[in-house]
Design brief:
With 469 residues, the protein is of the alpha/beta class. 38% of the residues lie in helices and 18% in strands. The protein contains 15 helices and 17 strands. The protein is globular and about 65 Å long.
C-alpha cells in the first residue's frame, strides 16, 4: 500500500481549497515546468506508480470521454479514479473515486502532502543555488489527486489533460493508454495559432510502449491528422482510429474534409440509431471496435455525446485488452453523469446549462439545441458569459444566429470579458440584448421566471450550477 514518505501537517478543507486556488502559492522566480511535477511526484514516492494511468487530451470532448471511460471501467469491475478540470462548484469535484467526488478530508490531505512536497523540492533547489519552481494551481492539484488515488488503492486512474499535452502536469505520469479526442483552435496564445501546431502539442502525450485511441476530431483536415499520425509512427505506437459511420453523427466534432481510409490501421466506428427529439429523450448508438460490436447503447444525452461514448468504449477495450461485458457496458453508459454538459438544472421554467466555451464546442451544442427546439423564434432566452482569452467573436456569431434574445453577464473569473463589451458584440451581431448584468447572481435573479439556456464558458455553467446546488 502506498504511503507518503515524509511527515506533513494536514490542512483543513477551506485552507486547502484556498491554497489550491492561489496560483503560484510558493516559489515565483521561474516559469511553470513539467519538471516541477516530476520532482514533486518523486518527492512523494511516485504515488502514480501504484496504479495504471489513462491520459486523455483534446480540445473538446475530453471531459465527457474521461467520465465515460471511468464509468465503463467501473462497470467492468475496476476500482477507478477520475481527474477532470475545472470543477463546477467545489474544487474537490475534480477528483473522483468510484464515481463520487473524494471527501473533503481526502482532498485536504492530498493538498497538504503535495504542498509539503513542493516546499521540500524548492528548499533543495534554493540550497543548491537554483531558482525555486513556481508551483501552479494545476501542478498542486495534479500531485494531490495522484496521492489521493494511491491512498484509495484504485486500480486505474483516468486523467484529463488540463491544457495542451506536452507540458501538462498529467504528462509527468506514465500512462499505459492515451487518447486525443480532437483538435480545435483554443488557447492559441499558448499552444499555437494553427490546428497543426496545436495538434503537435496535444499529440506529444503519445509515447513509446503505449496503446492509443484517436477520436473523431483528429480525422480532418489531412494536414492536422498527419501531425498526429507522424507522432504515432515516431514513437512506434499503432493507434485505433475512431470514425463515425455517418459524419452527421459527429456534429461539431470534425473539421471540413473527408477522412482518409488508412486501411493499414485499426478502426472503430459508431452509428447513431436514435436521436433525441426533446430534452430527456434517449440517444441510442451502435459501436463497433476491432474486438466486438455493442448494439443499442443508450444515454439521455444529445447526439454530440455519441462520439465521446464511442471513444470511451475504445479506450476501455484498449486498457483491458479484451472485449467488454455488454451488460455492464450498457448500464455504465446509461447511468454516467456529465455535469455541465447539456444539463437541465430546473424543469419549470426550463433552465439548461452547457459548458461549451469555444466555437467548435458551441457548434456541437447548437446542433443539440436545434434537435430539441427546431424553431429559432421560440427558443428560450440565452444567458451568456465568455472569457476574454477565447475566440469571443466566433462564439457570439454562432450563438446570435441561433438565439433571438440574450442576457449577458460576466463570471467571477479574472479572465471574464466585461458584460458591457459582450453586450456590444451581441448587438452588433443582430441579437436583441434584453439585459446586461455585472454578476451571474444578479442575472439569475432578474430572469428567474423565464426559460433560459446558459452557456459560453465553463465558469458560467459552474456558477449557475452552484446557484441551484
Amino acid at each position: 500500500m502506498y504511503k507518503v514518505p515524509f511527515e506533513f501537517g494536514e490542512l483543513g478543507y477551506d485552507e486547502a481549497s484556498a491554497m489550491a486556488h492561489d496560483c503560484g502559492f510558493f516559489g515565483n522566480t521561474s516559469d511553470p515546468l513539467l519538471e516541477t511535477v516530476v520532482d514533486m511526484l518523486d518527492e512523494l514516492g511516485r504515488p502514480d506508480a501504484s496504479y495504471d494511468v489513462i491520459q486523455i487530451a483534446g480540445t473538446n470532448g475530453k471531459t465527457s470521454t474521461s467520465r465515460y471511460t471511468a464509468a465503463i471501467l467501473a462497470g467492468q469491475g475496476k476500482k477507478c479514479a477520475l481527474y477532470t478540470s475545472p470543477e463546477l462548484v467545489e474544487m474537490r469535484e475534480r477528483m473522483e473515486v468510484g464515481g463520487e467526488p473524494v471527501s473533503r478530508e481526502a482532498f485536504a490531505r492530498g493538498i497538504s502532502a503535495a504542498a509539503e512536497a513542493g516546499r521540500r523540492v524548492n528548499a533543495r533547489r534554493e540550497a543548491a543555488g537554483e531558482d525555486p519552481f513556481r508551483v501552479t494551481e494545476f501542478d498542486l492539484l495534479t500531485c494531490a489527486a495522484l496521492v489521493v488515488f494511491a491512498e484509495a488503492e484504485v486500480d486505474v486512474a483516468v486523467l484529463e489533460v488540463g491544457l495542451g499535452g506536452r507540458w501538462d502536469a498529467t504528462s509527468a505520469t506514465h500512462p499505459v493508454v492515451t487518447c486525443v479526442t480532437g483538435i480545435g483552435l483554443d488557447h492559441c496564445r499558448i499552444l499555437g495559432d494553427t490546428l497543426e501546431l496545436i495538434a503537435a502539442e496535444k499529440a506529444a502525450v503519445i509515447k513509446p510502449g503505449q496503446r492509443c485511441v484517436l477520436g473523431v476530431g483528429t480525422a480532418t483536415p489531412d494536414s492536422m491528422e498527419d501531425v498526429i499520425l507522424s507522432r504515432c509512427a515516431e514513437v512506434g505506437v499503432e493507434p485505433v482510429l475512431l470514425r463515425p459511420a455517418d459524419p452527421a453523427d459527429a456534429p461539431g466534432e470534425m473539421h471540413p474534409g473527408t477522412p482518409r481510409a488508412h486501411s493499414e490501421l485499426l478502426h472503430a466506428t459508431y452509428m447513431v440509431t436514435k436521436r433525441p427529439e426533446r430534452l430527456g429523450a434517449p440517444l441510442e448508438l451502435d459501436v463497433t471496435t476491432p474486438r466486438a460490436t455493442y448494439p443499442e447503447l443508450a444515454a439521455l444525452k444529445p447526439v454530440y455525446q455519441a462520439a465521446n461514448i464511442a471513444c470511451a468504449v475504445c479506450l476501455a477495450e484498449e486498457y483491458l485488452g479484451r472485449a467488454l461485458d455488454a451488460e455492464g457496458l450498457f448500464t455504465s453508459v446509461v447511468q454516467c453523469p456529465t455535469p455541465g454538459r447539456f444539463q437541465l438544472m430546473r424543469p419549470e421554467p426550463p433552465l439548461l446549462i452547457d459548458a461549451c466555451h469555444n466555437p467548435q464546442s458551441v457548434a456541437a451544442f447548437l446542433s443539440a439545441v436545434r434537435a430539441v427546439s427546431p424553431d429559432r423564434a421560440s427558443r428560450p432566452l440565452l444567458l451568456c458569459a465568455v472569457l476574454a482569452d477565447k475566440d469571443v467573436k466566433g462564439i457570439v456569431d454562432l450563438l446570435s444566429a441561433d438565439f433571438p434574445r440574450v442576457a449577458v453577464t460576466q463570471t467571477s473569473s479574472p479572465r471574464a470579458l466585461p458584460a458591457t463589451e459582450l453586450a456590444d458584440l451581441f448587438a452588433a451581431a443582430g441579437c436583441e440584448v434584453v439585459g446586461t448584468y455585472a454578476t451571474v447572481g444578479s442575472a439569475l435573479s432578474s430572469i428567474c421566471g423565464e426559460s433560459c439556456v446558459a452557456c459560453g464558458s465553463i465558469t458560467l455553467a459552474g456558477e449557475v450550477a452552484a446557484a441551484f446546488a
